[in-house]
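In this section we walk through a basic example: taking a raw amino acid sequence and producing a predicted 3D structure, encoded as discrete structure tokens. The instruction is simple. Fold the sequence below.
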Amino acid sequence: MFSDDKKKTQGAWTRKKGQTLGERTVIFNFFAPEANAAHVAGEFNGWDANSLPMKKQKDGTWKAEVKLSPGRYEYKFIVDGIWFEDLPGVERTSNQYGTQNFVMQVS
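The resulting token sequence is shown next.
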């Protein structure tokens, strides 16, 4: 269902009109062309699995944009109700529940 031939998460950020100084727009991507729904949850939204839905792109990549201040953030993707914690090439850290979170540094 999920392919490793696309970049799963992207840490690109830019400042857009209306954003405060230091705030960045972070773009999250997850490639899952057969998925019906995808969300991103993390420290930036209280780990709410439903508050940040991702939008499916024509190529099967799901995308969400979040405005974040510089700092370190832990997060996960939820695809069709499944929390993902293992993607190649993405920094991870252990959490208090014995699973892994992804880590992103916004500078």
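Looking at the output, two observations stand out. The longest strand covers residues 71-79. Residues 13-106 form a domain with the Immunoglobulin-like fold (CATH 2.60.40.10). In the next section we compare this with other chains.
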